Structures are given as C-alpha cells and as structure tokens.
Amino acid sequence: MTRSLSSVVLVFTLLAAAPAWGQEPRLDFRHPIVGEIMEVVVDRVQPRELVVLTLEHDGVPLTMAEPADASGCVRFSMEVEPLMAGQTWTLSASSGGRPVSRVVRFQWPQLLVTGSIGTEAHLFRVEANASPERFRLIERVALGTRRAGGAVRDGRGTRTFVVADAAAGVVSVIADPEVAGGAFHTLFVPPDVRSITRTPDGAQVLVASAGNANESFLTILDAATDDPVGLVAATIKLGAFGPTGGKVVVSEDGLQAFVAVQGQYVLPVSLLRQSAGRPIAVGGPGQDEIRDLKVADGFLFALTGRGDRVSFVTGLEVGNLGNKALEGPAFAGSSMGLSKSAGRSSLLLLDGGGGAVTVIDARSMRRRGQSRPVPAGCHALLLAPNPERSGGALLRDAPGGTEALTIEFERFTLGAPRVYGFALYELPVFGASRQVDWLFVSGAGGRILAQHPETLDLVELPLPPGLVHASVSVQ
C-alpha cells in the first residue's frame, strides 16, 4: 500500500446489515504520531461482519479488510510516515445508514513546556521533528496569573490537559486549533496538585492532589470522551500524601496507578475499579522520602532516601505486589533513571557526591557489576525521552560555568568533558518518545535548551526568555 500521500482521506465502510445490539458503531484511534503505530478501533458492529478500510487519495481508493471478532470489534494499525505530518484526515464508519466520523491530524512528537514569565503561567506546544529547524513553536496559551503544574496530551493527539493553577486545583483542557478550533474547558479538582500523568494509551488523565492535611485525592479524567460534562470520571479519596507525596506512575497495561504517600508507602489504585488498595511499605528503615517512581518490564521501582543519607531502591512486581526486592544501602542515589542496554531495561542511580553510577538490572534487581566511577560533584544525570537510547550526559559545576560529559551504558564509557561558560541545570522531563533523542536543560535567563546526546551541542528552543518553574512533557 502506498503511504507517501500529500493528502489523505481515511474512510471506514462497515459491510454489515445493522450495528450489533442496535447500537451506533463506535470509532476511535490512538497515537497519530509520526514514527509511531496508529491504532484504530471500530466496535459495536455485527460479530464476524467484514470491515473494509478504504484510503482515498485523488479519487483512487486503497483498501484493506478485516472481519470483526465475536464481540463485534475490529482493529487496524498503520505506521505514520513523515510525509503524513501536518495532514488532516477524516475517519468515518457507517452501518445501517448511521455513520460516525472523526478528524485525525497527523503530527510530529511534541514537547509540552509549562512555566511562568513574571507572574503569568504559560503553556507552549513545540513540535520536535527531523527537519533542519528541529523544533518549532506551534501554540502558546496564557493560563493567567498562576503557576502551572505540568501538562499531557490525550491519546488522539487532539487536546492538551494542563494544570493551570496547581495551588487552587485548576485544570484546563485545550483542543488543538486545527481540529476543534481551540475549544477551552476549565475543570476544578482538589487543591495542591502534585502531579499529572496519563495512561499509556492516553485514554485517561490522572491528577494527584494533596487536598488537605488528612485526605488526598486522585482525579481520573476521561480523555476519550467528547462531552465536557463527562470529563471527570471519578475522584478517589486517598490517605494524606504528606509533604513530599503525590508522585504517580501507571502500569504498562494502563490498569493500575501507583501513588507515593507519606514518604514511605506506595498506594496501588485500580483504574478499572476506580478504588485504592492497601499501602505498601518501600525503602529502608528511617527513610522518609520517595524521591522517584518508575515502571519498566512489569516492575515498579521506588527510590527512597532521607536527607543526604544512603538510599534504597525497592522493586515490586506489578502483577504480584507481594513479590518485593530491596537494593541498598551501599549507595547514596540522588536520582534514578531508566535506560535500555542489550534490549533489557536498567535502573541508573547517580551518587553525585560519591562520584559513582550504579546500574541495576530492572528484572532481577541485581547490580550489574560494581558501581562505576564518574567525576565527583556531578549534580545531574540527563537521559533522553527515547527509552531505547543507551546513554546520556552528566552535568557538574565548573569554574565560571558547567561541565558536561557523555556517558554510554553499554560499555560504560565517558566522553571528553565539554565546558560551557554559563550555568546549566537539569530540567524535569516527563513522558517518552522513540523519536526524541535530545536531552533538555535550563540555562541562564530562563532559557530552555536541547542538548545533543553525542556532540553536546546546544539548541535553544523557540520560547521566550525568563521562563521559570519550567517542566517538559514529551508526547
């Protein structure tokens, strides 16, 4: 099938006598991102009926067909190629004279940058692509005189969910201008928002709020609904987060969320039943802070610590939370990252003060050899949003500026130091994309910079200077 099309209309024709159970067919899609596999689902049709997928270009139809399964559902998938970027397609499905349709706009991966300029918070959408300019600002939204708290995209790539006011608990839902004319909805969630994340398919957005001293909340937003009234699917009451709680990660199957509470517990939450389970203790004795949570290869990992003392990493099997492994306390991990080496995920723990990086196999929770020496004083381990990249960079202070050096985890080699005559700082980056290999840092004057992972060259993102409290989400 030819996919190098300058303009495409995608049409689903359902050859069925009538929709299953008398319901209108339903059409949905996920991941219309260049370089990714877009998934399209048509359900509520007659079981075993043939569903024909037709791509029409300049009047020439191209088709593929699949029968619906016993439940009346059929799935199609296709790779989104670079020539499709920027094209708007129409997806439609019809049966029994009752058509349904959606608009799809294919796009490059995007960076969602939130931060404040002066007293006003802003959201920026930046396209990250392989063209010579690398990064292009495609939307800027002023959120008001507030401090933003992060942002995510829905799975369809049509809306942005941004914490417009973390203190008051305000979430703005902003539709893309190209798809829905930039429709803007305001949601109110419990106050003191600590984090926002989404399920891997982007069908649900999760907002964790500390609420009050006794009761915290996880708000589940239905990112698959088109009805603004139904955006808030559930609000789950949790125990108190404590001063540092509220970090949230989601299992790879999208069925469970894990919330950090009270500095030493992880609270599992069933997104299917919309209910919380019992808290699970993580870390070693005397620790009071969950510094980071990660999910990889079916395991949940919690990095815990207390002040500048030694740290522990706790591994929990997502499918069997009673299966727990503990690593420590022979290192002082200040940060935890994930990387792949030889097709297997590894946890990377930086001990900047001690000048060492510890590598732990994600599945076995065993160290890969001894901790590897790195220059003392490194304050950041930078990793690209591409989870397949086996390498990154280290930052440490240098006279009059910052020193950076590449680090490669396959053979564990360090590159030659590169010195910049200004300060660079690690920038909080959330999300993942196989298409985005850059590292992200903040610099003097509130500049947001992308750093090449091999040459360490810097590229300034097309954002206004003076951006503070900034974070980046990759979708």
What does this structure look like?
By secondary structure, the chain is mostly beta strands. Helix content is 1%, strand content 54%. It is built from 1 helix and 43 strands. A 5-stranded mixed beta sheet has the order 5-4-1-7-8, with no helix packed on it. Strand 22 (265-270) and strand 23 (275-276) form a beta hairpin. The protein starts with 8 loop residues before the first strand and ends with a strand.
Report mean pLDDT, rounded to a whole number.
Answer: 87
Shape: globular
Major β-sheet strand ordering: 5-4-1-7-8
Number of helices: 1
Unreliable runs: 1-21
C-alpha Rg (nearest Å): 23 Å
The count of DSSP E runs of length 2 or more, i.e. the number of strands, is 43
Please sum up the structure shown.
The protein is an all-beta fold and 475 residues long. Helices cover 1% and strands 54% of the residues. The longest helix has 4 residues, at 177-180.
What would the keywords be for this entry?
about 475 residues; 1 helix; disordered N terminus; mainly beta; 5-stranded mixed sheet
